[in-house]
Amino acid sequence: MQELLVAVAKGLVEDKDAVQVTVDEPREDGTVVYHLSVAENDMGRVIGKQGRIAKAIRVVMRAAAARKGEKAVVEID
Fold it and tell me: According to a count of CB atoms within 10 Å of the terminal CB, is the N or C end of the chain lower?
């Protein structure tokens, strides 16, 4: 799952070396939180107009997690 998020983010940004994903321990309800951080100049590319790209990233991650029987949340730092 972490590799999927990194691959999606690197496809969107210019500074590919600044892409970092950290994973929190699963919450009580089994939800895993992924924290995506990118360079400040690339933040707009990851969020998109009115947050559309960020929403799409979250949908893809939730769908991929659901296929494995898990729950995932993406936070963009």
Answer: C
> SS3 of 70, please?
coil
Q: Report the DSSP pairing between strands 71-76 and 31-37.
A: parallel
Contact 74, 5 (CB under 8 A): yes
Half-sphere exposure of 10 (CA within 13 A, CB side): 12
What stretches of the chain show up as alpha helix (H) in DSSP? 2-12, 43-47, 52-67
pTM of the model: 0.90
* The pair of three-digit structure tokens given for residue 22, joined into one six-digit string: 């950290």
Contact assessment for residue 8 and residue 60, using Cβ atoms and an 8 Å cutoff: yes
Domains of the chain: 2-76 (3.30.300.20)
Q: pLDDT digits over 33-47, tens only? A: 999 999 999 999 999
